[in-house]
Write a structure and sequence with these properties.
By secondary structure, the chain is of the alpha+beta class. It has a single domain, classed as Transcriptional Co-activator pc4, Chain A, CATH 2.30.31.10. Strands 1-2-3-4-5 form a 5-stranded antiparallel β-sheet, with no helix packed on it. A hairpin with a 2-residue loop joins strand 3 and strand 4. It is flat and about 45 Å long.
């Protein structure tokens, strides 16, 4: 997966898989929508493949409530602008 892939899929944990891209040969970054403690959340997290072949999330990532999503987008946009400057 060279570029990112956008796809809305639902897994067994009721997470909506929205977007993914390969960070490197071993790690995939996934963007998902889900629920945590009664709040709807957006999660961007690194996933890895375990030795048994199962793909699992790591602790590396960020989860924000949906109402904070535009602030996260503003932070990413600011990073992109800083890199282009």
């Amino acid at each position: 997966m060279a570029a990112g892939t956008a796809s809305v899929q639902q897994d067994a944990a009721a997470e909506e898989y929205v977007y993914a891209f390969m960070k490197n040969a071993r790690e995939e970054v996934r963007a998902t929508l889900g629920n945590f403690r009664g709040h709807r959340i957006a999660d961007v997290r690194i996933y890895v493949e375990r030795s048994d072949g199962e793909i699992v999330p790591t602790r590396k990532g960020i989860a924000v409530r949906i109402d904070e999503l535009l602030e996260l987008q503003a932070a990413v946009d600011a990073l992109v602008e800083a890199v282009r400057a």
